Amino acid sequence: MGKRRFEYASGSPALDLVDTVSSRGTANIELLETPGDLSFWLHGLKIVAQDVTDHDLRDVRSLRNGIFRSAAAVLAAKDPAPEDVELINRTAAFQSFRPQLIEGSVILAADDPVRAAMAMLAAEAVTILSLPNRHRIRSCPECSMIFFDKSKPGRRKWCSSSSGCGNRAKVRRFRQKQLQEGSRRDA
């Protein structure tokens, strides 16, 4: 199989990780099947992690599932489960990336890039799941993708308005309106 196409449209890298299970709740399609898939996904976040292991993949999936369950709890107006909060907090405590100045550019370096990426993702989850921010966690009414609403008014409804679910919903409403107007003219 060729390289998978990953989307990074949730407004949060932690929720982008959650989105690596496609059609969640129905087909539950695992997009991180191999360590190579994880390496490719991390590259989309501008993180170079070579030599990703099966153990790394298992740990990232575990973190992903804890973040998903926590976000789903928030969406249901509940507190995340203590064991998920503990997993996220423990992972956020790993050594994260350190900025390095190399040839005039800032490069993020780590002894273990996968663990550093997990720490970064967990820290992001801590931020978005915190009380001042959790009200901006949303679920797309079309595809159920969980996203973080960064819009200034805080009224984002769709995972993607321009080309994704929001656009399809607008097209359906437009067509329905055209049909209704046509049936009124014919009556």
Automatic annotation (TrEMBL):
Signal peptide: none
Stretches assigned to coiled coil: none
Pfam families the UniProt entry points to: ABATE (PF07336), zf-CGNR (PF11706)
Classification via InterPro entries: ABATE, ABATE_dom_sf, Znf_CGNR
Domain Zinc finger CGNR: 136-178
Name the record gives this protein: CGNR zinc finger domain-containing protein
Organism in which the protein naturally occurs: Qipengyuania qiaonensis
